[in-house]
From TrEMBL:
Residue ranges crossing the lipid bilayer per the database entry: 116-135, 140-158, 164-185, 192-208, 214-232, 239-259, 291-310, 317-335
Protein name: Glycosyltransferase RgtA/B/C/D-like domain-containing protein
Keyword Transmembrane helix in annotation: yes
Transmembrane helix listed as a keyword: yes
């Protein structure tokens, strides 16, 4: 086991080292509209501090964004109404559509050298958790599973995470939240602090991508059902703690929407970006041909397997993940727009949660599962 753990650990570190070398060579001027807009948000934070939450095009009086537009030969660089990633608001302001989190993280690094450090930092977090999973494995099958998944998770920080700067921090948050989800549910006593921390992380992920709000859906469903079944103060406290923490985590986005759109609940996205659900076979076909399909199959498969053979607290993790998958896949697969990373966050959150659930399961549960019995000595429900 020690040799196998060392081997898988070295594989993950080798992939990380290769990623770091590749990321260090990335250009921050690849001509992608999203990239330039995230960098503009970072520039505003560096120049204005918290005032950078205001993304009004009129604040580009130093010509930063116009210069970026000229670099990619954007024909209408002088007209803010035509700027990519920006939308006119009823107040007359032209503001950036994205939430502020990605730009804030980029602003932590020196201008001109922001993207690579962000990706490297996120990759270090993902690799650290992958190595933790390998170290925690107690059987050869669990070690092989943890090692293969860890290597895949580290590799994904290059592709498809490079598709959008918002994906890298989202991947890191999903890894940490998956670890904490398993820790929360496999403990004999459920901690309000842990579920609040999970809520804070998931709420914070909304600051990178608004659809990340759906990542909290499975937890909300689980906590609501648990309270309705038990009607205890503890169940109520956990649900309240989670909801409050989610709101605190996404507070920067709510504040940014109030500043830019006039209300915390008003969107800065244009009408072209807000589309009604509609199943489109062409879009579904694109997902089937994409790497995301593999991740979907792995997430659904690991969840179904835990629901079938999992015992006690492990099954509780599977129930949370199952609810999350249903809500998120239902939304994205009915969203008539395809991108190579839409389903990656929910798939990775699901896989991290189920992977750590198996690794953290209490010893008596693991022994009962191997003998085909239900656990009797744990203070957690087994169904």
């Amino acid at each position: 086991m020690k040799i196998a753990k060392l081997a898988f650990g070295l594989i993950c570190l080798a992939i990380l080292a290769s990623n770091v070398v590749t990321m260090s060579r990335w250009s921050e001027a690849r001509g992608v509209y999203d990239d330039i807009c995230y960098l503009r948000q970072a520039h505003l934070f560096q120049r204005l501090g918290l005032g950078g939450l205001n993304t009004n095009a009129a604040l580009d009086y130093d010509g930063y964004f116009e210069g970026k537009m000229k670099q990619i030969a954007f024909a209408e660089w002088q007209d803010p109404i035509r700027w990519p990633c920006h939308n006119p608001m009823p107040s007359g302001k032209d503001v950036m559509q994205y939430p502020p989190g990605t730009g804030f993280l980029l602003a932590l690094f020196p201008e001109g050298h922001q993207v690579a450090p962000l990706y490297i930092a996120a990759s270090l977090i993902v690799c650290g958790l992958a190595l933790s999973g390998i170290a925690m494995a107690r059987t050869l099958p669990s070690l092989v599973g943890a090692g293969l998944f860890g290597a895949l998770a580290v590799y994904l920080m290059i592709n498809p995470a490079k598709a959008s700067y918002s994906v890298a921090p989202t991947m890191a948050v999903c890894a940490v939240a998956g670890f904490l989800t398993a820790l929360w549910l496999t403990r004999e006593k459920r901690s309000v602090l842990l579920i609040a921390l999970i809520g804070l992380l998931l709420g914070a992920s909304v600051n990178f991508r608004l659809p990340n709000a759906l990542l909290a859906a499975g937890y909300a469903i689980y906590l609501a059902v648990a309270f309705l079944r038990m009607r205890t103060l503890s169940a109520f406290a956990q649900g309240l703690g989670f909801a409050a923490a989610v709101l605190v985590g996404m507070a920067p986005t709510l504040l940014a929407q109030a500043v830019n759109a006039g209300s915390p609940l008003a969107t800065t996205y244009g009408s072209a970006d807000v589309v009604a659900p509609a199943f489109d076979l062409a879009v579904l076909g694109q997902y089937v041909r994409d790497m995301q399909f593999v991740l979907i199959v792995l997430a659904i498969g690991s969840t179904a397997w835990l629901l079938r053979v999992g015992q006690g607290s492990v099954r509780q993790v599977a129930l949370v993940v199952a609810g999350n998958l249903v809500v998120n896949l239902g939304f994205f697969l009915s969203h008539p727009i395809f991108t190579p990373y839409y389903i990656v966050p929910i798939a990775m959150l699901s896989l991290w949660s189920t992977s750590f659930a198996r690794l953290m399961q209490p010893e008596q549960v693991r022994q009962a599962a191997s003998l085909g019995r239900e656990p009797t000595s744990l203070g957690v429900p087994s169904r």
